[in-house]
Amino acid sequence: MKERFSCVVALRSPAHITLVPPFWMEDVKEDKLIDALTIFSRAQSPFDISIKGFGAFKPRVIYVNVRANSSLESLRVRLEDLLKQENFPVKKEERPFHPHISIATRDLHKKAFHEAWEIFEQKKYETEWLATGVSLLRHNQKKWDVIYTSQFENKLEAN
Predict the structure, then answer these.
(1) What is the pLDDT of residues 29-45, one digit of tens each?
(2) Is the dihedral of CA 21, 13, 111, 54 positive or negative?
(3) DSSP calls for 83-126
(4) How far is CA 65 from the centre of its chain?
(5) How far apart are CA 159 and CA 156, in angstroms?
């Protein structure tokens, strides 16, 4: 996407599946958020993530498609509930949860979208991995940095 369509916005963050949309909070609350994520993650079990093919939010976004996964959906709901309960400034996401990994986003021009989508719509790609934690990202005015990764510790219920 970078070489052929000059798309770089998706490269400004590590490959990820967004569980909670970005929100702003005061820096002094960061330790409290990290503590909450640590405690939350200790009770979570690792689970499989499977991706297959590509999808699009036409006409500006192309992504790797994350297959439906009740464990991922449940994790998202529990995490969002925890953050609200702990009074972190998260906003309720009104759109349905659609897990994906963006490969082109805001800088994919509408004119180039159709050409790019013709390529990716037919492209085969499939893999899976074990989700073992949750990462916290912070924007540094240029890109997103992983500032903390918690680990799931409840091995008894792993898939």
Answers:
(1) 999 999 999 999 999 99
(2) negative
(3) HHHTT-------SPP--EEEEE-TTS-HHHHHHHHHHHHH---E
(4) 12
(5) 9
Question: Do 40 and 82 touch, CB atoms closer than 8 A?
Answer: yes
Amino acid present at 52: K
Residue 6's φ and ψ, nearest 5 degrees, are 60, 35
- From residue 124, alpha-carbon distances to 8, 55, 78 in Å are 22, 12, 33
Q: What is the pLDDT of residues 41-71, one digit of tens each?
A: 999 999 999 999 999 999 989 999 999 899 9
The pLDDT assigned to 95 comes to: 85
Terminal-to-terminal C-alpha distance of the chain: 34
Amino acid letter, residue 96: P
Q: Report residue 144 as tokens.
A: 């997103």
Position 110: which residue type?
A: K
Domains of the chain: 2-151 (3.90.1140.10)
